[in-house]
Amino acid sequence: MAQVAKIPVIDISAEGDQTQVARDLVEAAIEHGFVYIRNTGKDIPIAAVEEAFDVARRLFDAPLSEKEACTIRQNNRGWSAMNYETLDPANQRVGDFKEAFNFGEFINAKAQQPLPPAIAADEASISAFRDYCYHLTLKLNTLLGIGLEVTPPTFFTTSHLRSAGPSGTTLRLLRYPPLSSLPPSAQPTDVRAGAHSDYGSLTLLFRLRGQAGLEILLRDGTTWSPVPVVPEGTEDDPAPPILMNIGDLLAYWTGGLLRSTVHRVVFQEGGNKVAGEAGDGTRYSIAYFCHPFGGAELGVVPSERVKGYRGEGAKGNPYAERRVMTADEHLQMRLKASYAQLYEGKE
Ligand SMILES: O=C(O)CCC(=O)C(=O)O
Ligand SMILES: [Fe+2]
Protein backbone atom coordinates (compact mmCIF):
# COMPACT_ATOMS: atom_id res chain seq x y z
CA MET A 1 0.00 0.00 0.00
CA ALA A 2 1.39 3.37 -0.98
CA GLN A 3 2.11 5.85 1.77
CA VAL A 4 -0.09 8.89 1.97
CA ALA A 5 1.41 11.80 0.07
CA LYS A 6 3.72 13.99 2.17
CA ILE A 7 2.24 17.25 1.02
CA PRO A 8 3.21 20.24 3.20
CA VAL A 9 0.58 22.14 5.18
CA ILE A 10 0.97 25.90 5.30
CA ASP A 11 -0.85 28.69 7.04
CA ILE A 12 -1.18 31.91 5.06
CA SER A 13 -3.51 33.64 7.49
CA ALA A 14 -0.95 35.56 9.58
CA GLU A 15 -0.55 39.31 9.15
CA GLY A 16 2.83 40.91 8.55
CA ASP A 17 5.86 39.79 6.58
CA GLN A 18 4.93 36.92 4.27
CA THR A 19 8.37 36.13 2.89
CA GLN A 20 8.86 32.83 4.69
CA VAL A 21 5.33 31.61 3.94
CA ALA A 22 5.88 32.56 0.29
CA ARG A 23 9.11 30.59 0.18
CA ASP A 24 7.44 27.56 1.75
CA LEU A 25 4.64 27.79 -0.79
CA VAL A 26 7.09 27.93 -3.69
CA GLU A 27 9.12 24.98 -2.41
CA ALA A 28 5.94 22.90 -2.11
CA ALA A 29 4.87 23.98 -5.62
CA ILE A 30 8.24 22.93 -7.03
CA GLU A 31 8.59 19.68 -5.13
CA HIS A 32 5.01 18.38 -5.01
CA GLY A 33 2.85 20.68 -7.13
CA PHE A 34 0.35 20.38 -4.26
CA VAL A 35 0.08 22.13 -0.92
CA TYR A 36 -2.51 22.22 1.84
CA ILE A 37 -3.68 25.69 2.83
CA ARG A 38 -4.99 25.62 6.37
CA ASN A 39 -8.56 26.75 6.51
CA THR A 40 -8.91 29.05 9.48
CA GLY A 41 -11.99 30.67 8.03
CA LYS A 42 -10.19 33.95 7.45
CA ASP A 43 -9.89 33.86 3.67
CA ILE A 44 -12.99 31.77 3.06
CA PRO A 45 -15.57 31.56 5.85
CA ILE A 46 -16.28 27.99 6.93
CA ALA A 47 -20.02 28.60 6.52
CA ALA A 48 -19.46 29.62 2.89
CA VAL A 49 -17.76 26.30 2.15
CA GLU A 50 -20.57 24.38 3.83
CA GLU A 51 -23.14 26.38 1.90
CA ALA A 52 -21.36 25.63 -1.39
CA PHE A 53 -21.58 21.89 -0.67
CA ASP A 54 -25.30 22.32 0.13
CA VAL A 55 -25.79 23.98 -3.25
CA ALA A 56 -23.98 21.05 -4.89
CA ARG A 57 -26.40 18.59 -3.26
CA ARG A 58 -29.42 20.58 -4.41
CA LEU A 59 -28.03 20.92 -7.90
CA PHE A 60 -27.16 17.29 -8.50
CA ASP A 61 -30.44 16.12 -6.92
CA ALA A 62 -32.39 18.30 -9.37
CA PRO A 63 -34.51 16.53 -12.02
CA LEU A 64 -32.48 15.31 -14.97
CA SER A 65 -34.36 17.58 -17.36
CA GLU A 66 -33.22 20.66 -15.40
CA LYS A 67 -29.61 19.60 -15.61
CA GLU A 68 -29.87 18.58 -19.26
CA ALA A 69 -31.17 22.01 -20.13
CA CYS A 70 -27.82 23.35 -18.91
CA THR A 71 -25.59 20.87 -20.74
CA ILE A 72 -21.98 21.96 -21.06
CA ARG A 73 -21.04 23.95 -24.16
CA GLN A 74 -17.82 24.86 -25.84
CA ASN A 75 -17.59 27.82 -23.50
CA ASN A 76 -16.88 25.18 -20.79
CA ARG A 77 -19.92 26.21 -18.72
CA GLY A 78 -22.75 24.01 -17.56
CA TRP A 79 -23.54 20.43 -16.67
CA SER A 80 -21.40 17.49 -17.65
CA ALA A 81 -23.28 14.18 -17.29
CA MET A 82 -22.02 10.91 -15.90
CA ASN A 83 -19.25 9.46 -18.12
CA TYR A 84 -19.32 12.52 -20.41
CA GLU A 85 -15.83 13.76 -19.71
CA THR A 86 -12.84 11.47 -20.16
CA LEU A 87 -9.80 12.95 -18.50
CA ASP A 88 -7.42 10.17 -19.52
CA PRO A 89 -8.70 9.02 -22.93
CA ALA A 90 -5.63 6.89 -23.66
CA ASN A 91 -6.22 4.67 -20.63
CA GLN A 92 -9.96 4.70 -19.90
CA ARG A 93 -12.42 2.23 -21.41
CA VAL A 94 -15.30 4.42 -20.22
CA GLY A 95 -15.73 8.10 -19.28
CA ASP A 96 -15.29 9.46 -15.74
CA PHE A 97 -17.83 8.27 -13.15
CA LYS A 98 -18.80 11.74 -12.04
CA GLU A 99 -21.24 14.54 -12.70
CA ALA A 100 -19.99 18.08 -12.79
CA PHE A 101 -21.33 21.59 -13.12
CA ASN A 102 -19.10 24.45 -14.26
CA PHE A 103 -19.81 28.06 -13.42
CA GLY A 104 -18.09 30.73 -15.49
CA GLU A 105 -18.03 34.39 -14.58
CA PHE A 106 -20.78 36.21 -12.70
CA ILE A 107 -21.56 39.85 -13.38
CA ASN A 108 -23.18 41.78 -10.52
CA ALA A 109 -23.79 38.43 -8.79
CA LYS A 110 -25.66 37.12 -11.86
CA ALA A 111 -24.56 34.00 -13.71
CA GLN A 112 -23.91 34.47 -17.42
CA GLN A 113 -25.24 31.00 -18.23
CA PRO A 114 -28.45 29.04 -17.61
CA LEU A 115 -28.86 27.62 -14.10
CA PRO A 116 -31.15 24.76 -13.06
CA PRO A 117 -34.25 26.23 -11.31
CA ALA A 118 -33.39 24.03 -8.30
CA ILE A 119 -30.51 26.40 -7.48
CA ALA A 120 -31.96 29.66 -8.81
CA ALA A 121 -32.23 30.99 -5.27
CA ASP A 122 -28.56 30.22 -4.68
CA GLU A 123 -27.19 32.44 -7.42
CA ALA A 124 -25.90 35.14 -5.08
CA SER A 125 -24.30 32.66 -2.73
CA ILE A 126 -22.49 30.86 -5.58
CA SER A 127 -21.26 34.21 -6.82
CA ALA A 128 -20.04 35.11 -3.32
CA PHE A 129 -18.21 31.79 -2.99
CA ARG A 130 -16.57 32.34 -6.37
CA ASP A 131 -15.46 35.77 -5.13
CA TYR A 132 -13.87 34.29 -2.01
CA CYS A 133 -11.97 31.83 -4.17
CA TYR A 134 -10.93 34.61 -6.54
CA HIS A 135 -9.45 36.69 -3.73
CA LEU A 136 -7.66 33.72 -2.23
CA THR A 137 -6.08 32.87 -5.60
CA LEU A 138 -4.94 36.49 -6.01
CA LYS A 139 -3.23 36.20 -2.63
CA LEU A 140 -1.63 32.89 -3.61
CA ASN A 141 -0.45 34.32 -6.93
CA THR A 142 1.19 37.17 -5.05
CA LEU A 143 2.86 34.76 -2.63
CA LEU A 144 4.20 32.76 -5.58
CA GLY A 145 5.59 36.00 -7.02
CA ILE A 146 7.27 36.85 -3.71
CA GLY A 147 8.62 33.33 -3.22
CA LEU A 148 10.05 33.19 -6.76
CA GLU A 149 11.42 36.73 -6.41
CA VAL A 150 9.64 37.86 -9.54
CA THR A 151 10.02 41.54 -10.43
CA PRO A 152 7.54 42.88 -9.58
CA PRO A 153 6.16 40.27 -7.16
CA THR A 154 2.64 41.08 -8.40
CA PHE A 155 3.57 39.85 -11.91
CA PHE A 156 1.23 36.81 -11.80
CA THR A 157 -1.45 38.63 -9.80
CA THR A 158 -1.83 41.40 -12.36
CA SER A 159 -2.69 39.01 -15.15
CA HIS A 160 -5.32 37.35 -12.96
CA LEU A 161 -7.26 40.52 -12.18
CA ARG A 162 -10.83 40.45 -13.40
CA SER A 163 -10.38 43.99 -14.55
CA ALA A 164 -7.82 42.75 -17.11
CA GLY A 165 -10.55 40.95 -19.05
CA PRO A 166 -12.56 37.71 -19.20
CA SER A 167 -10.80 34.49 -18.28
CA GLY A 168 -11.31 30.74 -18.31
CA THR A 169 -11.67 30.75 -14.52
CA THR A 170 -14.22 28.11 -13.53
CA LEU A 171 -15.91 27.07 -10.32
CA ARG A 172 -16.79 23.41 -10.61
CA LEU A 173 -19.09 21.35 -8.38
CA LEU A 174 -18.55 17.61 -8.56
CA ARG A 175 -20.47 14.55 -7.45
CA TYR A 176 -19.09 11.04 -7.71
CA PRO A 177 -21.49 8.10 -7.24
CA PRO A 178 -20.54 5.06 -5.14
CA LEU A 179 -19.53 2.00 -7.12
CA SER A 180 -22.37 0.05 -5.48
CA SER A 181 -24.96 2.32 -7.16
CA LEU A 182 -23.68 1.64 -10.66
CA PRO A 183 -24.65 -1.09 -13.13
CA PRO A 184 -22.54 -4.27 -12.98
CA SER A 185 -20.66 -3.17 -16.08
CA ALA A 186 -18.82 -0.61 -13.89
CA GLN A 187 -15.67 -2.06 -12.38
CA PRO A 188 -13.60 -1.18 -9.30
CA THR A 189 -10.68 -0.39 -11.58
CA ASP A 190 -12.71 2.20 -13.46
CA VAL A 191 -11.97 5.73 -12.38
CA ARG A 192 -14.11 8.52 -11.02
CA ALA A 193 -11.79 11.06 -12.63
CA GLY A 194 -9.07 9.83 -14.97
CA ALA A 195 -5.40 10.68 -14.53
CA HIS A 196 -4.85 14.28 -15.56
CA SER A 197 -3.19 17.50 -14.63
CA ASP A 198 -5.25 20.67 -14.35
CA TYR A 199 -5.25 23.19 -17.16
CA GLY A 200 -5.20 26.54 -15.42
CA SER A 201 -2.67 28.37 -13.31
CA LEU A 202 -3.72 27.04 -9.95
CA THR A 203 -6.60 25.06 -8.51
CA LEU A 204 -8.28 25.21 -5.12
CA LEU A 205 -9.94 21.97 -4.06
CA PHE A 206 -12.49 21.61 -1.27
CA ARG A 207 -13.34 18.15 0.04
CA LEU A 208 -15.43 16.65 2.82
CA ARG A 209 -14.11 14.76 5.81
CA GLY A 210 -14.24 10.98 5.45
CA GLN A 211 -14.58 10.95 1.63
CA ALA A 212 -11.61 9.19 0.07
CA GLY A 213 -10.59 9.02 -3.56
CA LEU A 214 -7.96 11.57 -4.61
CA GLU A 215 -4.51 10.26 -5.48
CA ILE A 216 -1.41 11.91 -6.91
CA LEU A 217 1.23 10.35 -9.10
CA LEU A 218 4.59 10.49 -7.37
CA ARG A 219 7.79 11.55 -9.12
CA ASP A 220 8.69 7.95 -9.93
CA GLY A 221 5.87 8.12 -12.48
CA THR A 222 4.28 4.86 -11.34
CA THR A 223 3.23 5.14 -7.67
CA TRP A 224 -0.21 6.52 -6.84
CA SER A 225 -0.37 8.03 -3.40
CA PRO A 226 -3.61 8.95 -1.62
CA VAL A 227 -4.08 12.54 -0.50
CA PRO A 228 -5.87 12.60 2.88
CA VAL A 229 -8.65 15.14 3.30
CA VAL A 230 -7.41 15.93 6.80
CA PRO A 231 -3.60 15.77 6.99
CA GLU A 232 -1.76 15.42 10.28
CA GLY A 233 -1.88 18.52 12.43
CA THR A 234 -5.14 19.87 11.01
CA GLU A 235 -7.53 17.52 12.80
CA ASP A 236 -8.75 20.25 15.13
CA ASP A 237 -9.11 22.97 12.49
CA PRO A 238 -12.66 24.19 11.90
CA ALA A 239 -12.59 22.73 8.38
CA PRO A 240 -10.26 20.55 6.31
CA PRO A 241 -7.50 22.49 4.58
CA ILE A 242 -8.01 23.77 1.05
CA LEU A 243 -5.83 21.77 -1.28
CA MET A 244 -4.02 23.96 -3.78
CA ASN A 245 -2.26 22.62 -6.83
CA ILE A 246 -0.31 24.05 -9.71
CA GLY A 247 -1.89 23.65 -13.14
CA ASP A 248 -0.35 23.20 -16.58
CA LEU A 249 -0.48 26.86 -17.43
CA LEU A 250 1.69 27.91 -14.52
CA ALA A 251 4.04 24.99 -15.11
CA TYR A 252 4.33 26.09 -18.74
CA TRP A 253 4.74 29.73 -17.80
CA THR A 254 7.55 28.95 -15.37
CA GLY A 255 9.34 26.67 -17.83
CA GLY A 256 8.54 23.59 -15.76
CA LEU A 257 9.88 24.91 -12.44
CA LEU A 258 6.48 24.84 -10.74
CA ARG A 259 5.15 21.33 -11.00
CA SER A 260 1.77 20.39 -12.46
CA THR A 261 1.24 17.03 -10.83
CA VAL A 262 -0.89 14.29 -12.35
CA HIS A 263 -3.77 13.19 -10.15
CA ARG A 264 -6.95 11.13 -10.35
CA VAL A 265 -9.99 10.11 -8.32
CA VAL A 266 -10.57 6.39 -7.73
CA PHE A 267 -13.31 4.26 -6.18
CA GLN A 268 -10.81 2.83 -3.73
CA GLU A 269 -12.41 -0.49 -3.13
CA GLY A 270 -8.92 -1.97 -2.96
CA GLY A 271 -5.45 -0.75 -1.83
CA ASN A 272 -4.57 2.78 -0.87
CA LYS A 273 -6.75 3.43 2.19
CA VAL A 274 -6.48 6.46 4.43
CA ALA A 275 -7.50 6.03 8.09
CA GLY A 276 -10.92 7.52 8.73
CA GLU A 277 -11.81 7.76 5.04
CA ALA A 278 -14.04 5.56 2.92
CA GLY A 279 -14.40 5.32 -0.83
CA ASP A 280 -17.76 3.60 -1.03
CA GLY A 281 -20.22 6.43 -0.51
CA THR A 282 -21.28 9.35 -2.68
CA ARG A 283 -18.40 11.80 -2.87
CA TYR A 284 -18.60 15.55 -3.38
CA SER A 285 -15.83 17.98 -4.16
CA ILE A 286 -15.54 21.56 -5.34
CA ALA A 287 -12.74 22.80 -7.54
CA TYR A 288 -11.92 26.39 -8.42
CA PHE A 289 -9.73 26.54 -11.51
CA CYS A 290 -7.98 29.86 -11.68
CA HIS A 291 -6.84 31.21 -15.05
CA PRO A 292 -5.21 34.47 -16.14
CA PHE A 293 -7.29 36.72 -18.40
CA GLY A 294 -7.59 35.21 -21.86
CA GLY A 295 -5.19 37.57 -23.60
CA ALA A 296 -2.39 37.17 -21.04
CA GLU A 297 0.82 36.33 -22.85
CA LEU A 298 2.72 33.49 -21.24
CA GLY A 299 6.16 34.91 -21.94
CA VAL A 300 9.33 34.98 -19.88
CA VAL A 301 8.73 35.27 -16.13
CA PRO A 302 11.05 37.97 -14.78
CA SER A 303 12.59 35.82 -12.07
CA GLU A 304 16.20 34.64 -11.95
CA ARG A 305 15.08 31.39 -10.41
CA VAL A 306 12.65 30.68 -13.25
CA LYS A 307 15.09 31.78 -15.95
CA GLY A 308 17.87 29.67 -14.49
CA TYR A 309 15.80 26.51 -14.15
CA ARG A 310 17.23 23.60 -16.09
CA GLY A 311 15.64 20.67 -14.23
CA GLU A 312 13.74 17.67 -15.51
CA GLY A 313 10.50 19.58 -16.05
CA ALA A 314 12.28 22.04 -18.35
CA LYS A 315 12.74 19.66 -21.21
CA GLY A 316 10.78 20.41 -24.33
CA ASN A 317 9.82 23.84 -23.19
CA PRO A 318 12.79 26.17 -23.52
CA TYR A 319 11.87 29.81 -23.90
CA ALA A 320 14.08 30.24 -26.92
CA GLU A 321 12.15 27.83 -29.08
CA ARG A 322 8.60 28.73 -28.38
CA ARG A 323 6.34 31.43 -29.49
CA VAL A 324 4.44 33.21 -26.76
CA MET A 325 1.06 31.57 -26.30
CA THR A 326 -1.88 33.31 -24.67
CA ALA A 327 -3.84 31.89 -21.74
CA ASP A 328 -6.87 31.33 -23.99
CA GLU A 329 -4.92 29.39 -26.59
CA HIS A 330 -3.49 27.25 -23.83
CA LEU A 331 -6.94 26.45 -22.42
CA GLN A 332 -8.48 25.60 -25.80
CA MET A 333 -5.64 23.23 -26.52
CA ARG A 334 -6.27 21.34 -23.28
CA LEU A 335 -10.09 21.27 -23.44
CA LYS A 336 -10.12 19.74 -26.90
CA ALA A 337 -8.23 16.75 -25.62
CA SER A 338 -10.74 15.77 -22.92
CA TYR A 339 -14.15 16.52 -24.48
CA ALA A 340 -13.87 14.57 -27.72
CA GLN A 341 -17.63 14.64 -28.39
CA LEU A 342 -17.97 18.34 -27.81
CA TYR A 343 -15.13 19.42 -30.07
CA GLU A 344 -15.14 16.70 -32.71
CA GLY A 345 -15.00 18.15 -36.19
CA LYS A 346 -15.55 21.66 -34.86
CA GLU A 347 -12.45 23.69 -35.34
O1 LIG B 1 -12.56 15.60 -6.83
C1 LIG B 1 -11.38 15.70 -6.62
O2 LIG B 1 -10.87 15.41 -5.54
C2 LIG B 1 -10.43 16.17 -7.70
C3 LIG B 1 -11.11 16.68 -8.93
C4 LIG B 1 -10.14 17.09 -9.98
O3 LIG B 1 -8.99 16.73 -9.97
C5 LIG B 1 -10.58 17.99 -11.07
O4 LIG B 1 -11.79 18.22 -11.21
O5 LIG B 1 -9.71 18.49 -11.80
FE1 LIG C 1 -7.81 17.95 -11.28
UniProtKB/TrEMBL annotation:
Residue intervals of the Fe2OG dioxygenase domain: 167-292
GO terms for MF: metal ion binding; oxidoreductase activity
Keywords recorded for this protein, A-Z: Iron, Metal-binding, Oxidoreductase
Top-rank taxon: Eukaryota
Database matches in SUPFAM superfamilies: Clavaminate synthase-like (SSF51197)
Example GO biological process: small molecule biosynthetic process
Entry annotated with the keyword Transcription regulation: no
Keyword Iron among UniProt keywords: yes
Family annotation (InterPro entries): DIOX_N, IPNS-like_FE2OG_OXY, IPNS-like_sf, Iron_ascorbate_oxido_reductase, Oxoglu/Fe-dep_dioxygenase_dom
PANTHER family assigned: 2-OXOGLUTARATE (2OG) AND FE(II)-DEPENDENT OXYGENASE SUPERFAMILY PROTEIN-RELATED
Family: Belongs to the iron/ascorbate-dependent oxidoreductase family.
Name of the molecule in the record: Fe2OG dioxygenase domain-containing protein
Organism: Staphylotrichum tortipilum
